[in-house]
UniProtKB/TrEMBL annotation:
TonB-dependent receptor-like beta-barrel domain location: 595-967
Pfam family, one: TonB_dep_Rec_b-barrel
Domain of life according to the entry: Bacteria
Subcellular locations according to the entry: Cell outer membrane
Organism listed in the record: Thalassotalea castellviae
Name assigned to this protein: TonB-dependent receptor
Length: 1001
């Protein structure tokens, strides 16, 4: 039963009070430690040494991050903590780490102390990383190669967040940390961060008892400026082109008077977005442990989180620009090379670089126009994770059992308003119909920046006073949401290990896990207005009490002079704190104004709610082996799932609750081998299968059947089965010094049974009629509301119609790559280097690729126009559509991370630079659709970010420190179609500075 401990592991036993080694082997470790010299290390080096020792002793590929002290993980944000690990990249929202990709995949699993967590939406990954403060986490483990006992459900890996175990404390734990964070682009000043912890254990007559309580309260504000310019619907064909649309030859001279001797792209839309998020997060983690004797332990964990993520963003839009596209000639052009898609060269075209957009009242009496948007929303999430269990160690048998429950209740209130500006300039008189009015604009898209604003030099321009006058705005529309999502996961598990002496098979693990997951969602949304006429649009003077000036600091980050800084919005603070009052004032203004009376209705629709209940049974058996230099495990996990999807079926206004059921089962073999080929070198091999269950939203079968026989029915698919993934890992690790390693590994993941959106078409018989049998054996879905016209007998009711849903595709995709890591410090050269021996380095690099799959993107109508014009085709009857493999979103082929640190004489400093290659995403400024990005995701250019921290131990108890995120204020640049092609959007991010002190008592 004795476990061989490495020299590093033995050093760690006395290096830190927060040792995570399991109590089962505590006595063995104590005996072994007597025979080996123990090297004492502290602080940053201690955490790195501890993590390295634990990784080395694992039988499967697992990455470990340990805190230097409670509340002192390498970074403040958990997503950014994980970014330190080889093969992990993250995505950010307004500069805050929110998404994590492990080996290129967003499909990962998040646990706390091995218990499942649930998220705030319809996804499967678990708790949102921004909902949990890093201050209450003592360590993080990322399982890349699963064992048979590893819970199924991830593609990239499983992230387990570990809190402090009180019975492992060697002394009383007490700490308090107070910090303030300041963002360079926000206007609310320094935001507080407070965290603390207390823990201890005691020997009593009944046994050993321990408790740890840790908590944190954080306020954080993050801002980014996101200008966006659309040049998608802005093609101006050359003056010599014969342009045919719908079979008709267009008169170039009349329709496109600014046409040149070359094709060019003008400006179609301008959008200035200031994205602002305010976070208020409260976390509490409590653990109780009781060991009545050396062979038995009971525990209870409680993690309670509450987060309010408030969005307070503004958008200033130049709309209707395309109406005068053919009458405004840019003053300067640039050449845009679109690159290639799937080996097809798209070619180059000229595009507007500088110019103005002037009204042309003879062509359009109210365009281009100006709109002011205030987007005020929130995600309010309360999450709880409770875990109760115990473990017992016998002579040859170890048993642990636990029950856990995770729940997440989320509300997403929002009130987004849009005001239209009515230009009072005498040269732009109103015709009394449309509720917008002509405004001139100027733009300069040079220098890899998207700058634009109102052209105040134009005779058509309004004054600054005009822009800030409530009499010159009207209400266009208000979007309201009161949606809710409730997720829960209740789990029982029992895990056992039977130890075998004097055998190659050292132990057998076996166990059972049952969990019931439930997802309930209610979508409550409504829109007031969408007015288009002045007669329906209340004037701002009728609701002036709600109006405030919008943020005027757009451009502070890059010093741009050209921006829209003077405008009115509905007060976001009032819209958030008292939305009912805002609605009341707006509806009162509508009543006073007259016209179309469109009031809010927040009654859920018949198909607004649905519920998913999923029950899973999992059994596993795993053999652990060791023979000479070979150790590892092999085993199998069998999973059986039953699903019930409950929603409403609406036919001719009649609502019927309907439950659709499905089930599936999978057997998942897994193998891990470690060869200790030398005292300091080991080789790892892992192979196994896993599954990725579909998101709950894809299982939603609430549906309303219409009467149109040609209309496809859109609904979820309760019978959608999980994706399957087969993983292979091989790698080598050389531990060439006490806290040092060089490693290289190769991984490959084959995914099949993919989730794809398809149209399941209803078949036609020889008469051209669709199937009238409700079974719809030939395809499609039975629509009981249809009265056939052309496609069936008009004397009957009901017909099989097309169905659009997600289905499983047998195509295979492959993710593969190499991971390399290096870690070393100079502490062993104390005598030779003196103070310089405090330096160390941690670095990693990942290169990966993705291929396969049958899904693809297709050029939107606007993109098709442009790409055909580049190739000299101007007749839409001869147009060719262009496609590209769908691939993976948020997937970078190359990424690296380098951290240099110094720790000596109470001083600890760290400088970390993270870089990732370009990747495709659908996250663009102001939510641009695929239609406005030519039909393809935008490409976010490669980007590096520099973070730094420094702290000093004033004495044994007091530490003061300073941390900086995004020191160089690295911006985000996005291009349409390919990197460096047509510049579409920017993300101008902030620099965040955190300062404070911690006291340990």
């Amino acid at each position: 039963m004795k476990q061989k401990l490495s020299k590093i592991s033995l050093a760690v036993l006395s290096a830190t009070a927060l040792n995570m080694t399991t109590s089962v082997y505590a006595q063995d470790a104590e005996e072994a430690a007597k025979e080996v010299e123990v090297i004492e290390v502290t602080g940053m080096r201690s955490s790195l040494t501890s993590a390295l020792a634990e990784k080395r002793d694992t039988d499967n590929l697992t990455e470990i991050i340990m805190a230097t002290d409670i509340g002192k993980l390498p970074d403040q944000n958990l997503a950014e903590v994980l970014e330190n690990v080889t093969g992990i990249q993250i995505t950010r929202t307004a500069g805050i780490g929110t998404g994590v990709q492990i080996r290129g995949s967003n499909a990962n699993r998040v646990e706390i102390n091995g218990a499942s967590t649930v998220g705030s939406g319809a996804g499967r990954s678990g708790m949102n990383f921004e909902d949990l403060s890093a201050a209450i986490i003592a360590g993080v483990e990322i399982t890349k190669a699963p064992e048979a006992k590893t819970t199924e459900g991830s593609i990239g890996g499983t992230v387990n967040l570990r809190t402090i175990r009180p019975l492992e404390l060697s002394e009383t734990l007490g700490s308090l940390r107070v910090q303030g964070e300041d963002s360079s682009l926000t206007t609310d000043g320094v935001q507080p961060r407070i965290s603390g912890a207390y823990g201890d254990n005691w020997e009593t007559d009944s046994g050993r008892f321990g408790v740890v309580v840790s908590g944190s309260y954080t306020k954080q504000e993050a801002t980014s400026f996101r200008p966006r310019v659309d040049r998608d619907g802005s093609l101006v064909e050359n003056a010599s082109a014969d342009v045919y649309r719908n079979g008709s030859l267009e008169d170039q001279a009349t329709k496109r008077p600014v046409a040149q001797s070359f094709d060019f792209l003008g400006v179609q839309f301008l959008n200035q977005e200031l994205e602002n998020f305010e976070y208020e997060t409260t976390n509490l983690a409590t653990t109780f442990e009781f060991a009545p004797n050396a062979d038995m332990k009971f525990f209870f964990d409680a993690i309670i989180t509450s987060q309010e993520r408030r969005q307070d963003s503004t958008r200033v839009q130049a709309s209707g620009v395309s109406s005068v596209l053919n009458y405004n000639l840019p003053t300067e052009f640039e050449t845009v090379d679109f690159g290639s898609l799937d080996g097809v060269d798209l070619g180059s075209i000229q595009a507007a670089l500088r110019g103005t957009v002037q009204p042309n009242l003879g062509v359009d009496d109210d365009d281009p126009n100006l709109r002011f948007n205030s987007d005020t929303g929130a995600r309010v999430t309360d999450t709880q994770v409770f875990r109760l269990g115990g473990e017992w160690q016998g002579e040859d048998l170890f048993i642990s059992a636990e029950v856990s429950t995770s729940s997440s209740d989320t509300r997403t209130p929002s009130l987004n308003s849009q005001l239209n500006f009515i230009n009072p300039n005498p040269l732009t008189p109103l015709d009394g119909s449309s509720n917008d009015n002509a405004v001139p604009f100027i733009y300069d898209l040079s220098g890899n920046a998207l700058t634009f604003g109102v052209d105040f030099d134009s005779p058509y321009a309004p004054t600054v006073a005009d822009l800030l006058n409530p009499n010159n705005v009207v209400l266009d529309q208000v979007d309201i949401s009161r949606s809710t999502v409730d997720n829960s996961d209740d789990t029982f598990r029992i895990d056992s290990t039977y130890f075998i002496d004097d055998n190659i098979i050292t132990s057998i693990d076996f166990g059972y896990r049952y969990n019931k997951a439930e997802h309930s969602a209610v979508s409550i949304t409504d829109r007031i207005g969408g007015f288009s006429k002045m007669v329906d649009s209340p004037n701002g003077s009728l609701f002036s009490e709600l109006l405030v000036a919008g943020p005027s600091h757009f451009g502070d980050a890059d010093g741009r002079e050209l921006a829209m800084r003077n405008f009115l919005i509905v007060d976001p603070n009032l819209a958030f704190s008292d939305p009912d009052k805002v609605l009341s004032v707006l509806e009162s203004a509508m009543a006073t104004h007259g016209g179309n009376q469109d009031y809010s209705d927040l009654t859920p629709g018949d198909t607004a709610a649905f519920n998913i209940e999923e029950k899973n049974h999992a059994f596993y058996a795993q053999a652990n082996f060791e023979y000479e230099m070979i150790r590892g495990n092999f085993g199998v996990r069998h999973v059986k799932t039953d699903i019930a999807s409950t929603g409403n079926t609406v036919v001719n206004g009649n609502v019927t609750p309907t439950t659709n059921t499905a089930d599936y089962s999978f057997t998942l073999p897994r193998l891990n081998i470690v060869a200790d080929v030398h005292d300091d070198v080991l080789v790892r091999l892992g192979w196994g299968k896993d599954i990725l269950r579909p998101n709950f939203g894809d299982l939603n079968t609430s549906v309303s059947f219409g009467t149109n026989e040609n209309q496809a029915v859109e609904l979820g698919n309760a019978a959608l089965e999980p994706e399957e993934v087969t993983s292979f890992d091989i790698g080598a690790e050389w531990y060439f010094a006490e806290a040092a390693v060089i490693s290289i590994g190769y991984f490959k993941k084959d995914r099949t049974n993919l989730f794809v959106i398809e149209l399941d078409s209803a078949t036609l018989d020889a008469n051209g009629w669709r199937d009238s049998n409700p079974a719809c054996s030939g395809g499609g879905i039975w629509n009981p509301a249809v009265q056939p016209n052309v496609l069936g007998d008009p004397n009957t009711v009901g017909l099989c119609v097309d169905r659009e849903s997600k289905f499983n595709d047998s195509a295979t995709t492959t993710q593969s790559g190499f991971e390399m890591a290096f870690q070393y410090d100079l502490s062993s050269f104390e005598e030779q280097l003196g103070w310089a021996s405090g330096f160390g380095i941690v670095a990693n690099y990942t290169i990966q690729e993705y291929k396969g799959g049958s899904a693809f993107y297709t050029s939107a109508t606007r993109g098709t126009d442009i790409f055909n014009a580049i190739n000299g085709v101007y007749d839409d009857s001869q147009f060719v559509k262009y496609t590209s493999d769908r691939g993976l979103l948020d997937f970078s082929e190359n990424a690296y991370n380098v951290a240099v640190y110094y720790e000596k004489h109470g001083l600890a400093a760290r400088l970390r630079y993270t870089w990732r290659d370009a990747f495709r995403t659908e996250d663009t400024a102001a939510g641009a659709s695929l239609n406005s990005t030519l039909g393809f995701p935008v490409t976010t250019h490669d980007r590096g970010q520099l973070n730094a921290s420094v702290s000093y131990d004033v004495n044994e108890k007091l530490n003061i420190g300073l941390e900086a995120v995004n020191l160089t204020e690295s911006d985000i640049t996005q291009s349409c179609v390919n990197e460096g092609a047509l510049l579409c959007a920017q993300g101008i991010t902030d620099r965040r500075i955190t300062f404070g002190a911690s006291y340990r008592f």
